[in-house]
Design brief:
Length: 334
């Protein structure tokens, strides 16, 4: 099935969500100067397996926070404890200033990695039903669902069963289910799964609009390029422990500009300089070159020119987050 996502109706997120007046969190008994989520020395075990091991982190309100890690690192277990689907064996969790509880569950919108919608129900029907479970009236549920189906280019499939949708369409429907009740905290586990580049960009833009309206977003994904453009801060976990955490810009700056991004035509023999080059990632006519400490990038440029390579881009940059991710995880496994 093809997704008709090449043209988007002019529906602003603000028309699909009720206006948020100043102090809207305070009206719900939630402080606005506290961290949105705080984990303090949280541990979760499953028999002999320690999935999360003494994990501490804090997420400021109104931010996009990246919870990152390799497969099996403990990310989903952590998210489920914040959601109160699982209860930690040790440590404490505060959500919007309150201990994680049934009440805080209603303040969270959750997009799980696995499919979670009733497959035999129709799209509009299941979304209105889920909105009602979050406390919206039938009239308001119907209005919001209609707005979001238009925004996410699903209106033409509103009367189709979930099982009849493509994977990408199902993902968009599940995204609507997560945001329909305007939660102050969104937990999105691999939200771009199954989405083509056009729809991934659409979901990204909506997420940033929600952030700008005051929502806090926890994003768990393996797509480092999305983390780089969206996240304010991150926590990288491996084997249930935090191995890197903090402001994303500060983390990247701490590594310095030790990477060359080069686009060229001709032979790439000029990169074979082990005294200067630590590693090379090749992307066709472009490469990213990690320099050894103290290496002079001008020496590589001179070698390229002398060997006849035609350089169209030569830029010294901070390392991509993907490289930092691989380096930190590799250190743990070493």
């Amino acid at each position: 099935m093809l997704e008709n996502a090449l043209t988007f109706p002019a529906v602003d997120v603000r028309t699909a969500l009720p206006a948020r007046k100043p102090g809207w969190l305070h009206d719900q008994g939630i402080g606005t100067h506290m961290d949105a989520v705080v984990l303090e020395k949280v541990t979760k075990r499953f028999d002999s397996l320690t999935a999360v091991d003494g994990l501490s982190l804090s997420i400021r309100p109104g931010a996009v926070f990246g919870l990152l890690g390799p497969n099996g690192a403990g990310k989903t277990t952590t998210l489920r404890m914040i959601m109160r689907v699982l209860v930690p064996d040790e440590g404490s969790i505060l959500v919007l200033g309150q201990p994680a509880s049934d009440r805080t569950q209603d303040l969270i919108g959750y997009l799980p990695e696995e499919r979670g919608l009733y497959p035999r129900m129709k799209v509009r029907e299941v979304l209105v039903f889920l909105a009602a479970l979050k406390g919206l009236s039938e009239r308001e549920s119907t209005r919001r669902v209609g707005q979001w189906l238009e925004r996410l280019v699903l209106a033409a499939w509103a009367e189709k069963k979930i099982i009849d949708l493509s994977k990408g369409m199902q993902q968009k429907a599940q995204f609507i289910a997560a945001i329909i009740h305007t939660p102050p905290l969104l937990i999105l586990d691999e939200p771009f799964t199954g989405l083509d580049p056009v729809n991934a960009a659409l979901v990204k833009d909506i997420m940033l609009e929600l952030r700008d309206q005051g929502s806090t977003i926890i994003l768990s994904t393996h797509r480092m390029e999305q983390v780089e453009v969206m996240c304010d801060s991150i926590c990288l976990i491996n084997k249930g422990r935090s191995i890197l955490a903090g402001d994303l810009r500060s983390i990247k700056q701490s590594y310095g500009k030790n990477t060359l991004r080069i686009e060229y035509s001709g032979q790439g023999d000029f990169l074979e300089q082990p005294a200067l080059v630590e590693s090379v990632n090749r992307f066709g006519a472009a490469v990213e070159v990690k320099l050894r400490p103290g290496a002079d990038p001008q020496e590589i440029l001179r070698a390229a020119v002398s060997q006849g390579a035609r350089i169209s881009r030569f830029e010294l940059i901070e390392p991509p987050l993907n490289d930092i991710f691989i380096e930190k995880v590799s250190e743990v496994h070493a």
